[in-house]
Amino acid sequence: MAEYYIGEIFTLLLMSLALSMDAFSVSLGMGMQQLRLKRIALIGIVIGIFHVMMPFIGILLGKFVSDSIGDFAIIAGGLLLIGIGIQMMINAFIQDDSKMIRPIGFGLLVIALTVSLDSFSIGLGLGMSGVKTALAIILFGISSTMLTWLGLYLGRKVHGFIGKYSEILGGSILCGLGIQILIG
After folding, report:
1. Distances (CA, A) of 85 to 21, 44, 112, 178
2. pLDDT tens-digit profile of 38-59?
3. How many domains does the structure of the chain reveal?
């Protein structure tokens, strides 16, 4: 029984890190702008809040859908994870950083919403599979906040050459988790 909970925590932790790779990648680019540490802290918190809200809404909707369509929901959830993972990997190669939105006011909300949209989709899949909601959204919020801060800080120090690779890694993790759901 304890192994089941440890496995679920480990899986959710990997998933939260994979979902946070978008935020990390975007924050690397934003970090190259001249941002004060206070602004960096605010950006990380706002993105973390969105990474809590979006999957929570998705989980609630996923549970509703799961009750309606039964076992098909697990297959749909696994396929959804694989699809999002593939999309993340493809977007890593076609990303255009020349139109970077400034992380201030409405621009910050747009950035936070954009990088957390995949969390909504993942939430749908998780809700269909009956995940522990509180654990999932806490891990999503913490990991996205921490990786955003890390990306913003590293963006100040490094010149963007690892952004693409972090999205590829995140996408491959999501694909692996989707395959695990389908097989399991």
Report:
1. 11, 23, 19, 9
2. 999 999 999 999 999 998 998 8
3. 1
**Residue 156 CB burial class (10 angstroms; 0-12, 13-18, ≥19):** middle
Q: Are 29 and 154 contacting, i.e. CB atoms less than 8 angstroms apart?
A: no
Give residue 154's identity as a one-letter amino acid code. Answer: L
Over residues 126-173, the pLDDT tens digits come to 777 777 888 889 999 999 999 999 988 887 776 545 556 766 776 777
Asked if residue 182 lies in contact with residue 73, where contact means CB atoms within 8 angstroms, the answer is no
Q: What are the b/e assignments for 30-62, b being 16+ CB within 10 Å? A: bbbeebeeebbeebbebbbebbbbbbbbbbeeb
Q: What is the pLDDT of residue 149?
A: 94
* 3 vs 87: CA distance, rounded Å: 32
Query: What is the residue range of 158's domain?
Result: 2-183
Distance, in Å, from the CA atom of 167 to the CA atom of 23, rounded to the nearest integer, reads 9
Q: Which stretch of 13-17, 98-102, 107-111, 142-146 has the lowest confidence by average pLDDT?
A: 98-102
How far apart CA 153 and CA 30 sit, in angstroms, is: 10
C-alpha–C-alpha distance, residues 149 and 82, integer Å:
27
Q: What is the pTM of this model?
A: 0.71
Residue 128 CB neighbour total at 10 angstroms: 29
